[in-house]
Amino acid sequence: MSVLEVEHLTVRYGAVEAVRDLSFRVEEGEVVTLIGPNGAGKTSTLLGLVGLVAARGSVRYRGQAQPHRTPEALSAQGLVLVPEKRELFASLSVEDNLLLGAFQRHQRRESGIRADLEWVYTLFPRLLERRTQFAGTMSGGEQQMLAIGRALMARPKLLLLDEPSLGLAPLIVREIFDILGGLKREGIPILLVEQNARMALGLADRGYVLEAGELVMEGRAQDLLHDPRVLESYLGLRGKEAEA
Amino acid sequence: MDWTIFSFLLADGLQNGTIYALLALCLVLVFAVTRVILVPLGELLMFAPLSYALLLQGQFPGTAWLSAAMLVAWALLDRNRLRLALALLLLAGVVLGLAYWGSHGAPGWVAWLLAVLIVLPMGPATYRLFFEPLPHGTVLVYLILAVGLHFVYQGLGLVFFGPEQYRPPALLSGEASLGTVPLPRQVFVVYAFAFLAMLGLYLFFTRSLYGKALRACAVNRLGARISGINPSEAGRVAFLLATAIAAVSGMLIAPLVNAAYFMGFLLGLKGFVAGILGGLISYPMAVGGALVVGLLESYSSFTASAYKEAIVFALLLPVLFWRSLRTLELGGEEE
Ligand SMILES: Nc1ncnc2c1ncn2[C@@H]1O[C@H](COP(=O)(O)OP(=O)(O)O)[C@@H](O)[C@H]1O
Ligand SMILES: [Mg+2]
């Protein structure tokens, strides 16, 4: 049984078709990446997946069809999104942000929330230093760490990450990808959306390439990393951008 | 103005200001979580003491029918969630049963509690029936709905209770004198309740995860949803809390001022003015604003009694002007 099976996903905003007939899957313990240029429809895919925008097509999570999915219900089942804009609770403390990530578990009186808080603090020692600070006062990198930490507090069984490297300095990006590598070793399945194709393919087991809302390539991450078309349009392009 | 009159007006202003503060807190709470300006809050306040008055006269209050009917409508809307729907139907039966008990010889203090309990379901039901079906409504759409509900509830109040005024018995009767000012003992019950309600809200929002989840919904609805917090549920809880505070406030002040079907609107409006002074976001500023409104009203009733309402509402103009300037500086706030 796959963790996630998406079939024929189509997302429309009025006349604009942001995602067209997209099918992909995530298996147990696997990191899968969805890469593509700005405006390719990556964010729309994730939003349609969790029910934040209307989408046609079918989504199965851990064998269960999800026709009337909502982000709050999926989060309660362990499918947790870390959105592009992080969507933190700016006027609440760092620690409250983390604890609210475990809101459903708290309501179900699950044990281990405190232990998971300690675990998140060991993954991101900077959050521990800033635990009483308002989330809105932190730097971009710290906010991204907090967004990931808050999602981890839900004990995710599938983590959806929307461009965790967006707008961050290379050193911070490195740090965040190291953490993601650790999560991969713990066996947490991850669907990683990225424009930073080199980093994403370096971490992932498999990858899908999206262009203008359509799937143009898929395969093992290592193969994609050495595919001439990917090299030219994503990795090459990024190299030229860096020179410019 | 001599010292005695000054103290009288001070006591009067503080008493009213305290009620406005409670209502302003409710309005800020509901607005923060749901973006609804709860205009019918005054009616939810009025329903409880008038139901109490009828129960004491041995009459079955129409509010019980309204409350039960709203619960049945809610059950129909959520008929796909069978257990919830059945619980709502059961609750509707319980409300009618409580009203029957209250009007058939329940002791006075039991009737007091029953009157509050009968009104409580109307808060969350109002949210479920009228606001939840429009999750993407703008503040203006919600405001228009809320004004409509205010007229409907006030009209129903007239149908249920008639135009007469009631003065239900106080929890604490008699007077105590503070210096030269004689004060009804009931006033101290009002202050005690206001203190407990504010302390309770403060602890709820700062100590309990559930309270923090409500704040989370207020600051970032999307962030709350992906964290597994259901904003609809948070909205219902906000309406329930506001209704509870308003209903008990109504029960406590009805023995001090006469209770009638039209009593809620001006109280709610002054609570709203106080809430606006706090920008509808700050709880402490709303409470401070409420005391200003109460005192201003009290002293202006002495010096210019014909204009006392006008003076209170005129307070809005500089505040709104100042706020609109700030909004311009910020380049327009969201929504
Ligand atoms: N809310 C929206 N309304 C209309 N069009 C949108 C909206 N969000 C995204 N789009 C359009 O959908 C396409 C895909 O956007 P998006 O999913 O954000 O891409 P990506 O995340 O890959 O950069 C773009 O053409 C974008 O302009
Ligand atoms: Mg995007």
UniProtKB/TrEMBL annotation, chain A:
Pfam families: ABC_tran. Residues 4-237 form the ABC transporter domain. This is High-affinity branched-chain amino acid transport ATP-binding protein LivF. SMART domains: AAA. SUPFAM superfamilies: P-loop containing nucleoside triphosphate hydrolases. The keyword Hydrolase does not apply. PANTHER family: ABC TRANSPORTER ATP-BINDING PROTEIN, HIGH-AFFINITY BRANCHED-CHAIN AMINO ACID TRANSPORT ATP-BINDING PROTEIN LIVF. Coiled coil: none annotated. Keywords: Amino-acid transport, ATP-binding, Nucleotide-binding, Transport. Belongs to the ABC transporter superfamily. One of its GO terms (biological process) is L-amino acid transport. GO terms for molecular function: ATP binding; ATP hydrolysis activity; branched-chain amino acid transmembrane transporter activity. The gene is livF_2.
From TrEMBL, chain B:
GO terms for molecular function: transmembrane transporter activity. It holds the Pfam family BPD_transp_2. The chain crosses the membrane at residues 20-38, 58-77, 84-103, 109-127, 139-163, 183-205, 237-266, 272-294. It is a multi-pass membrane protein. Keywords: Amino-acid transport, Cell membrane, Membrane, Transmembrane, Transmembrane helix, Transport. GO terms for cellular component: plasma membrane. It is found in: Cell membrane. The keyword S-adenosyl-L-methionine does not apply. Belongs to the binding-protein-dependent transport system permease family. LivHM subfamily. This is High-affinity branched-chain amino acid transport system permease protein LivH. It comes from Calidithermus roseus. The gene is livH_2.
